[in-house]
What does this fold into?
Amino acid sequence: MVTLAEVAKHAGVSASTVSYVLSGKRSISASTRERVERSIDDLGYHPNAGARALASSKTNIIALMMPLRTDMYVPVMMEIAIAVATAARAHGYDILLLTGEEGPAAVRRIEGSALADAMILMDVELDDERLPLVRGAERPVALIGLPGDPTDLTCVDLDFTATGALCVEYLANLGHRELAVIGEAPGVYERHTGFAERTLSGVRSRARELGVRALHRPCLGGYPAMAGTLARIFDERPGTTGFIVQNEAAVEPLLNLLRQQGRAVPEDVSVVAICPDQVATQASVRLTSVAIPAQEMGRRTVERIVAKLEGRGRPEVQLLEPELTVRASSGPAPI
Amino acid sequence: MVTLAEVAKHAGVSASTVSYVLSGKRSISASTRERVERSIDDLGYHPNAGARALASSKTNIIALMMPLRTDMYVPVMMEIAIAVATAARAHGYDILLLTGEEGPAAVRRIEGSALADAMILMDVELDDERLPLVRGAERPVALIGLPGDPTDLTCVDLDFTATGALCVEYLANLGHRELAVIGEAPGVYERHTGFAERTLSGVRSRARELGVRALHRPCLGGYPAMAGTLARIFDERPGTTGFIVQNEAAVEPLLNLLRQQGRAVPEDVSVVAICPDQVATQASVRLTSVAIPAQEMGRRTVERIVAKLEGRGRPEVQLLEPELTVRASSGPAPI
DNA sequence: GTGAAAGCGCTAACAG
DNA sequence: CTGTTAGCGCTTTCAC
It folds into this structure.
């Protein structure tokens, strides 16, 4: 293993000079710099991460905690994780992936062992058990998701309230007066990130403002569950013509069931989904949808964290504006 | 930040004693051990990862490289990654997540900087550009996937050849004589892991043995592509009654299209999929399938790596036996 | 069964 | 602009 000292000797300079060439923290004459850089190449030198971390108290690692609840739609999580990793690398950071189980203990472990310079927490619950630790943390932390009380925290999330409102508004403008929201699994509403509740409250308040009716039903996803949910919806509100779906596992079942029942999309009923673009475009009917901007969320979060690491930027909740893309699943309400 | 020295002072022992209590590398009297452990708790001590890495040349980190080709089915990758992370933690290791871009350079970076003790490479191509580096690596490496030449490498993968054979055998036993394989996107066959080719060769050789015909068609996935592919299949082989699908994005389109064409599953045609169980059970018809054992692959890979790190175990290709689960999409061939 | 002390490879004052 | 030097916190001989 090549060490800095060896590079120094090879280049005929002192260790510190090599170090400074690497960090750029003081000016070096062109000739020395060149000599050192040549030696680095010749010897194939790479700074030792452990030594560097010890001496500088900087690891250049960001920990990414993603608890993996079974009812979360994994691909979105993954897309965010990938975006985070990519963005982090662009800023010179690597990602340490922490999953499930460990929970709050992981926060303590990372903090205590100085394994990472900062942390990003995904899939944040309304009253997340990691939050107390986060608030007392010495290192920067950012959340992807919005807890019940985001005071003093840095959070990035899609503005789900606006998303719900946007969907209602869009459908109402098309003349739909009876809407149904097909939501996440019931469990999600009880203990989760609150994104589901926020969507719902956006839906309800805009529905009230616009004078349309909106019925909400959680749904486990899959065919049997969707069939039951759909039956109950039409039972209760036979005039329903607009659907807002926030549940990837319910999308395809819904479309198939509507078809089976002879309700044409978008002629008889319109469907607007809140889901990743990939799901929207791969569905059996190309879905009008509000995308979950996973890439953007990952990128922004890393930017916030890096800003904090560099001493810039203070806690801030950053909600991304929803964008609705019209595709083939929506149209004017039938007369 | 609490240091080992502080713990030592608090417990009234020397630093080395604390270190040995932690590592268990020499016997400690019960009383001392207790005292030290109390101090550790009282002070909330966590060993500094950097210092430990520097002194011991062990990071307790395993790097996981997953290139992210856009045509790979992400959820499977993710499931493996999660399984890897979980298994690694159980062995006392954390996972450093490396994605895309960097390619071979990442291997060099990890090796050179001693950021991790070992590496796991996912989504291995037939002639992966990372392999030369891997062969010369000082640290243990394991591959998830099977390259063209696995000599001297540690690999874990599903036995796709056996998988292809198994699917054919199953359908042939049900009396199907004309089979069609709906494969991955064309691009996958050109440059990828070879899992697609291996499946195909398994299909072909068993088909020959059993005297059944098997037509193969790559498919981009999605409705339009699947519609075209399906039309061409029935055009060329109108008597096709058995489908083997190895493409998650083609599953639902296939089922819907068959339905639209009035071909009942499983009465008229049988469908066997090679996909994660979740896809098989969530499809509009519960699919008879061979599962991609993501969990198992992750677990096994970590076991191999840990074995290597502990000096046990040498290079070895480990192919997991496919298991076919019968569900609702397959039945006897129509008469 | 326990201590003392020498590094591990790097960074960052402190001196010129 | 460059060199000298003192650690960073831990592991691990060596010595008792």
User: Anything to note?
Assistant: The first strand of chain B starts at residue 61 and ends at 66.
